[in-house]
């Protein structure tokens, strides 16, 4: 079960579930959220924790918390000579890279969407990244 959670957290859905002819994006979104929610909170990285997931129609919404405040993140980036925008770009790039896996790509092609909502340790909203197309121009 832990391997399945890790795969789902990274956006990989078991291909057989996604490719079933009778599968609808809404039902699959609900299924994904139910599976992932059983294992939360999940340390997605050293600095982030996935703490919530829900399904709304064809969308799986993952809630991710930075284990720092906005000010702490800015300071870490500043020490490396990087602007805050680089953190946002990194998140958007990582989410779009889910399209490299067949499961997420098939879910998106069925009309599904992934939304990753990012918050800081003090519950301040940071940003969201939405994946609704796997075309190279999205």
SSE topology:
Elements: H1 2-9, H2 15-19, H3 25-37, E1 48-56, E2 59-66, H4 70-79, H5 84-96, H6 102-109, E3 113-119, E4 125-131
Parallel strand pairs: 2-3
Antiparallel strand pairs: 1-2, 3-4
Radius of gyration: 15 Å
Terminal CA distance reads 32 Å
Report the average pLDDT across residues: 84
Question: How many runs of DSSP E, i.e. beta strands?
Answer: 4
Which blocks of ≥5 consecutive residues have pLDDT under 50? 1-22
- The topology string of helices and strands comes to HHHEEHHHEE
Order of strands across the main sheet: 1-2-3-4
Number of discrete helical segments: 6
Q: Please report which band the strand proportion falls in: under 5%, 5-15%, 15-25%, 25-35%, 35-45% or over 45%.
A: 15-25%
Largest beta-sheet characterization? 4 strands, mixed
Overall shape: it is globular
Structural class: alpha+beta
Helix % is 40-55%
What does this structure look like?
This protein is α+β, with helices and mostly antiparallel strands. Helix content is 41%, strand content 22%. The chain has 6 helices and 4 strands. A 4-stranded mixed beta sheet has the order 1-2-3-4. A hairpin with a 2-residue loop joins strand 1 and strand 2. The longest helix is centred in the N-terminal third of the chain and has 13 residues, at 25-37. The protein is globular.
């Amino acid at each position: 079960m832990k391997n399945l959670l890790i795969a789902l957290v990274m956006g990989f859905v078991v291909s057989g579930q996604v490719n079933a002819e009778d599968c609808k994006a809404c039902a699959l979104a609900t299924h994904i959220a139910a599976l992932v929610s059983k294992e939360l909170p999940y340390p997605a990285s050293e600095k982030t924790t996935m703490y919530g997931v829900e399904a709304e129609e064809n969308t799986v919404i993952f809630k991710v918390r930075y284990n720092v405040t906005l000010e702490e993140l800015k300071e870490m980036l500043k020490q490396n000579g990087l602007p805050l925008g680089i953190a946002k770009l990194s998140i958007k790039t990582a989410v779009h890279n889910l399209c490299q896996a067949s499961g997420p790509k098939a879910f998106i092609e069925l009309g599904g969407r992934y939304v990753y909502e990012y918050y800081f340790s003090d519950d301040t909203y940071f940003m969201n990244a939405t994946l609704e197309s796997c075309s190279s121009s999205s």
